[in-house]
Amino acid sequence: MKIRYCNTGWRQSACEAFSFFSPLPVNITDNKPVVLSKIIPFCIGLLIFCSPFFANGQHKNDSLEEVDIFGKKEENLSLDQRKNFTAGQQNQKLDTALKVFYQMQSLAQLLAEQSTVFVKSYGVNGLASLSFRGASAAQSAVLWNGIPLSNPTLGMADISLLNSGLFDDISLQYGSSSALYGSGNVGGALLLENKLPDFLLKKNVELTLGLGSYGRKDIAVQSLFQNERWRLKSNFFYQNVRNDFEYLNNADSLLKMENAAMSGFGGIVSVDYNLDKNKSSDSKHILSLQLWYQEFDREIPPALFESFSVKNQLDRSFRSLVHWQKKQKRSSFYAKASYNIDYLRFRDGVVLPNNENSVAQFYSEAGWTFRLDNVAKKNRLPFAQHILLFAPVQFGTSFNKDANLKMQQWRPALVAAYKLESDNERFSLNASIRQEWVAVEKSATLPGISALYQLFQKQNTNSFLKLGIRCNIQKSYRLPTLNELYFSPGGNPNLLPERGWNEDGGFVFEISFQKDKKEGNNKLTLKQETNLFNRNIKDWIYWLGGSIWTPHNLAEVHSRGIETENSIRYQTGNWKFNVSINTAYILSTTVASYMPNDGSIGKQIPYAPRYSGQMNFGIHYGFLFVNYNHQYTGYRFVTVDESQYLKPYQIGNLQAVYKLQWKDYNLGISAQVLNIGNKDYEVVNARPMPRRHFLLGVQLGI
Question: What digits encode the pLDDT tens for the residues 359-371?
Fold first, then answer.
């Protein structure tokens, strides 16, 4: 894919929308972008105006299943208590029906195909990072059971190294939540969770075998043993692939990718113990230990501007988590500690013969939640109040053996959160505040507030209707990473932290119809969600340079946009149909700069596509499920002055799985055709992606 040169402006947005249907080149001219900041205060004002009436709604119960809006959370035992204090923030939980297709694939593949979050992938075996709403990779958090996985040296996590099948729940939280999750959570967060046990008697073993194009082989083994006292759970995987796919070079010649092999293995082992003396199946007192090790040996193929490559990268990670939690009627206490080690060895026989880097990170957190009002009290108010107090401590250290350079950073914090919610679940308000320190120096005070309100809710025997609105206002903050401050050569110890405010709001409309069961199980559900956001970040950090790159502070970057989620579900008898379309339009531009004659003013941040979209069309009949996935990614500018860009691309994927069950045995057979149109495309400049390829899988459960 060649880079095109252009001038830019509002016409690019319109032209790019038409390019979704046409691959023809687009001419672009200059003008000012659309401003959405005036719309968001209107939504927030509407929410505040309507909130006094939350106590008037009637909560009805009947046979129709209720669907939650805006990620309403149940307060139960969890490895991350903070998720119970995020009502009003946009949260997307990935569809469990589609998860079967990604059990042996990376999170980079899963999120690129099933969300509008931009996955910045440097091609096969290359780094893959997240970009929420035009934010940089360092402004996007990745958390495992509440533990930050972002490398303190780089400030980001390589999601191409995270296997989707290792986690029970995968969700995306859009927008800032720095008050709860700390420095770096500016654009959004990827939340990975392994569920706590219920201590009911269970035991099973699952074996999954996979084959694919370019010599791909996968093996995964999962096992579970659980009784009223113990749960022993393990999840292991192995991958090996040659990645010798064909691609077009700059001369439009078809070549075979070289130096692109990859092998990896790893797994998570967890041990949970029920400390409840009553031996209740609904345990309220748990001690858990999780150990996670993985290793990837990757050859780094040549970029389009390189004639060959002998690069090789070895990544090893060890992560551990000890978690204790005791829940009582009105309160809950918890404590957790995690120690993570990441080792990277990069070899390049031409430039860097051997470059080794080790990063160690320690994280601990102790907290207490309490319900202020007494549930047993007869004359209590028609709403519940909860508080959460916790103290996280994060310490990271990095050692580069080649440069004999050691860097470290210690960050303690104190956090308080408050939640108010009505008994009829029509209104919920969350407020939180965080104070951080760097070593003993006070760094930032981070407040945040969010709320949701059901404007309309009606339910009867055969229909269900709900209309809700939400808003979220957070102060954003990100400390410079160790590399940005101290890397030699190129680090800038004079960097200022990134700081600003994030506002977002939106609405959800949902309607469902169901015929009487005597006439057949026919059900139709329509859901439409629209979200607007606005973010201003001062002292945005960006790397610039030639032979030696150095990070600099841009004066201010303004991000704003609109996101939609649309779905239709229909069921008749044994047939189920599902169509979902998610879209995003994002403007993320530099509005001021400290550097004279900066050509980035008014221009889109590099690798922040204005338009992106994703669609799924699925048919489920009996044991068979067939799904077609389509993704669209718009123009990505390569330079800060928009002088170079990559053309949009569209990728289609066809997926099918057939499951059988006989007594205690389960058999699943899956097949996928990826990039079904055999497209040549690049996510990042000069890094070609695979053309059409296939994946086959067989899963046996006992």
Answer: 999 999 999 999 9
pLDDT, position 409: 86
Q: Is residue 516 part of a domain?
A: yes
Note whether residue 144 is domain-resident: yes
CA distance 691 to 246: 7
**pLDDT tens-digit series, residues 257-290:** 999 999 999 999 999 999 987 755 455 899 999 9
Enter the tokens of residue 538: 């001062």
pTM of the complete model: 0.87
| Secondary structure class of 640 (helix, strand, coil) | coil
Range of the domain at 575: 10-228+376-384+425-701
Q: How many helices (H) does the chain have, and how many strands (E)? A: 6, 33
Q: Is residue 242, in this structure, part of any structural domain at all?
A: no
Mean pLDDT computed over every residue of the chain: 85
**310 located within any domain:** no
Any idea what the CATH number is for the domain that residue 673 is in?
2.40.170
pLDDT for 642 equals 92
- Give dist(CA 13, CA 8) in Å, integer: 9
Whole-angstrom distance, CA of residue 427 vs CA of residue 195: 27
Start-end of H helices in 319-463: none
Q: What span, in angstroms and rounded, lies between the C-alpha atoms of 107 and 157?
A: 11
Domain total in the chain: 1
Distance CA 125, CA 110 (A): 16
pLDDT value for 296: 97
For 135, counting Cβ atoms within 10 Å of its Cβ (0-12 exposed, 13-18 middle, 19+ buried), the class is buried
